[in-house]
Structure formats: structure tokens, C-alpha cells
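Hi there,

I know you've been waiting on this one. I reran it after we fixed the sequence typo, so this is the corrected version. Both the input and the resulting structure follow.
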Amino acid sequence: MAKQPLVSVITPCYNGAEFLSIFLDSLMDQTYAKIEFIFIDDGSTDDTKKIFYSYVPRFKKKGYKVIYLKHKQNRGQAAALNYGLKYFTGTYLTWPDADDILHKDNIKERVEFLQQHKTQGMVVCESPILGKHMTILKIRRRIQPTDDSNLFRDLLTENNVTFAGGAYMFRVSSFLQVNPKKEIYVARGGQNWQMILPMAYSQKCGYIAKRLYLIRNHPGSHSRRIRGLKARIKRIDEHENILLHTLDRIKMSAVAKSEYRELIIKKYTKRREYETIRFRGKP
């Protein structure tokens, strides 16, 4: 029997005690055992550390390699993920959120795909969004196009894509071609853009039409906390800044970079105009 390649799972977490056990249970239940689990406690002040360590003996018994990292103060998911990227050693890489759920075959199916499709630098699966009582609100998926070179543009325009980190798995040799320093631009969020976009520009992406990654939609999520025009405009500005910084880090021709930069600026200009009109007359 062929030796299983190591899969690195990097998960940042800030005050995730409410949902963390469900995520850790789903990781524990994986049908694939060759896992390196890197958990970054991003300055949590709740029971996150206690809950995590309660699972460590079970993870080790199953054969997982476990690494716990901690920021003294909350620095945001991008900084936490950046921290974890310095430590991973796997052949494959994925980065699920600590409040989501992995299907039991999440890692197994994606590893098998990449093992069988050597020209693919990454693979993505379907990712249903779960509401109250675990009901499916909608499904984020990418319907496989006839020309997968469209993925980069589709990500920029948010067309026919999913951004969930846990839905993607990278072939590390391909990831190191586009990110040899194993680091991303540190901002308050946007880590999935920064991970996926450089890969999407130069690497082929495979598709698994199965619901292998479940996204929890709950009132405490960051996007649900944004209220008012000022806060929304600030968030739009942040997203635009993240994309422009990420674009600057990708090796491409000056002509292509100028085209994509214009596309990004136009996209977020329209969003600011839309929010301004929508909130007209409101506080």
C-alpha cells in the first residue's frame, strides 16, 4: 500500500469556544489520518485554548501531528494564518475556519483527486452555507467551465466561485512556486483572497462536485456585524486594498496587471455607489 502524503490543516481561531467543538469533532472524524493540524489561537479570551487541548490526546491517538500557536493579542485571521504558514510541512495544504464543519471525507477525497490529477495545482469542492438548525441556505460551488483559465477573473468579479478556505486544497509544490516565502499580506481579513488568487493565476484548479465543506452562518460572523454606511464603506475600502496588494504580489505582465487593477477599482467603485444610494437618508 502506498504511503499516504501528509496534509497540513491550518486553522486560525479567535474566541471560537461556541462552535469550536463541532469543528474539532469533524476534523477528528476524518477518514484520512495523515494530518498535521496547526491551530493558531489569535488572542482568545474565552475557553478556546481549554477546548482545543481537550482534543489533543484524541488527535495524537489517531496519529495526527498537532501544533498549537498563540498570539498574545488578537491580530486578525490573515496575521494568524500567516503565522501558521511558517510551520506547515505537508504535501498538501488546506485552511478551514474554526466555526465550520468538514465532511468526514473532506480530506480523503481531495487528496485522492490531487494524487490522480498531477497537472492540477489545487482542487475545490462545494461548500453549502448552513443556517439555524443546520438547514442549507445556499450552496457555494464552482460549475466547471470549459476553460479553467477564467478562474482568476471569476474570483476578482466573484462570479461562479467559492472563497471558503476549507473548500480548497493546494498541492504544496505548486503553492511554493507562487508563494516561496509562505506568507500573505497582513490585513484585517481577506486571507482567502490572498491565498487563492496567486494560485488561480498560474495553476490549474480541479473541481469535486460534492458538498465536502460546510459553512456555518451565524449572528457572530464578521460580515453579519457590519452595520451602517460608514462601516460598510470602510469594509469595501479594506477589500479593495487587499485585492490591490495581492495583485501587486503576483508575477504577471504590466499590461495584465493594469487590466486587472482597473477591473478591481471599477468593481469597488460601483459597490460604494450602491451602498451610498441604499443608505441615503439613513443614519
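Quick highlight: Strands lie at 7-13, 35-42, 65-71, 92-94, 101-102, 120-130, 136-140, 168-171, 204-211, 213-216.

Best,
R. S.
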